[in-house]
Amino acid sequence: MSFRGLRTSKFRHVFGTAMRKDSHYEGIRVTRNSWDSTFCAVNPKFLAIVTEAAGGGCFLVLPIEKAGRVPNNPPMVAGHRAAVLDIQWSPFDDTIIASCSEDMTIKVWVIPEKGLEESITEPEASLESVHQRRVGFIAWHPSAHNILMSAGSDNFVVIWNVGTEEPLSLIECHTDILWSCGWNFNGTRIVTTCKDKTLRVIDPRTGDVISERKKAHDGAKPQRAVYLKDGRVFTTGFSRMSERQYALWDDNNLSEPITLEEIDTSNGVIFPFYDPDNNMVYLGGKGDSNIRYYEVTEQSPYVHYIDRFDTSDPQRGLGFMPKRGVNALQNEIARFYKLHPNKCEPISFTVPRKSELFQEDLYPDTASQVPALSADEWIEGKNADPNLMSIRDEFASVLPAKPKLAGLKKPNALNRPKLAPSKPTSTNSVRDSAPPKPAPEPTPPPPKVERSPPARERERSPPREVHRGSGDRTSVAATAQKLQQQHNAYERQEVHAREEEKVEEGAGAKDPPPEPPKPEPEPEPEPAAHYARQRLYEDERARQQLYEEERIARARENARAQEKRRSRYDNPDLYQPRQQPAAPQPQIPPDFDFQELLEEVKGLRALVRQHERRIMNLEDALGIGD
User: Fold this and answer.
1) Which of 57, 265, 479, 587 is geometrically suited to a Cys-Cys bond with 84, CB 3.0 to 4.6 A?
2) What is the pTM of this model?
3) What does the alpha-carbon distance between residue 87 and residue 94 come to, in Å, rounded to a whole number?
4) SS3 assignment, position 375
5) 31-55 confidence digits (pLDDT tens)
6) C-alpha dihedral sign at 61, 66, 70, 71
């Protein structure tokens, strides 16, 4: 049995965080339409939200940095005659947005750079006269300019040239209402899901079905599909028992799914949001209060669950920020805009890192705003992947510059001078016959300094005296001189003792004379650190003694004061409790008329009631009552 370790991934620790309340967009009447759409679109400049409207369709466009409460009557984009069902920003221009509606039209709008100052009712382009029923979904081409796809309830998928407002192709292979449609990475194929439970991969230019799978999900509720960067298809749907599922497919062979997993038993439609840069899929269900996120890889089980972000409030829609709009300074890899009934709440997904530098592995090159193809080139049959850009370029002014390896201008410190080679034997007879130079005279050795006896032969020195200053210490030279004198005296005493022993041996055995006492060496000067420690120790002892004396004095003073107070309270002659003065009794004059006072109180009460009725009438008239 082999042990299978943890999967290596840089996205194993992704955390979702709801932003602070001052980053919310409040006071928005989000639409209550039952159509299965996200009702929100966002880019680095603007946030667009479909709102509730009477007598037509409109949506709100706000600058992304103007968070807070929206005015009561903000300017709107109001040009549709019926409810707006889907909105999408152009990937190549942050001021162009397309919208589709129940009025069977698609309209393209241009938003001013500073945002809406007044409502817009006239679109820049109107795509109509093809769809015969409501248009539910739209999607821009990922690499070709001005190419737009729309899908309606009339079972048609139409490819448009927005610049000329003309349809390029009409796809009629579907037998029922479409539930979703989307482009692949370079726009050469589209994938659709339909109410007939069939998953189709179609050529957008010719309308031919490349591959299809009936009953991709067995459930009768709506299915959604997105194309992945490597050509695989990710779908969400329901099982026969109404259990929510996700599946991964090969677009060239839809006969069997690569993987199929159940999620839960909720009944809300799941919207998949795909990040092609990090190959991550985020799943947010309509009416759910959580967002799940997965990483798609080439290894089994192919779709790896990471975590989920939970909140207490259900979501009415979601908007997904392109990678150009995330905050790379905080390692943010995704940002959602969650719709509530009356506000929009941003949610940030980050990867914690200790380093504050730009994380190259988290931010590979992403799709830029420069189209790879024009509309005419795409119509002619050319294909190209989207142009890419570096996220570092967007934050070049605030991110630390990448270190550059400059040439070595200083001399190499490792290049040491080489030793000169040994001098070869000379063959010059003239030079060899010259008399050799006299050798330099040898330098006399330094005089031998006689040392004092070893420490084990000297008697133990008395305790050292405490020196208060550096002026009292003997200099090094004077100490060395004294030690030399002691050593010389010690040697003379030994020589004298040996001579006396020789004389005694010749004259006869006698009692040896007592040895003269050896001079005691003077104590060596102690280092300055010792003096400092000694002074600190003595100062601390003095402070403690002073503190103890003060504490004893205060305790004695308190005891005397307490004894004095106790003796005062015990003696009734010295302590007299303070008498409280009696409250003065009100003096009522004998001729006071109580009946007159009662009549005056009744009159004041009637006047107060009259004023209260007037105030209530004014509040009702102004509409400011409770």
Assistant:
1) 57
2) 0.65
3) 13
4) helix
5) 999 899 999 999 999 999 999 988 7
6) negative
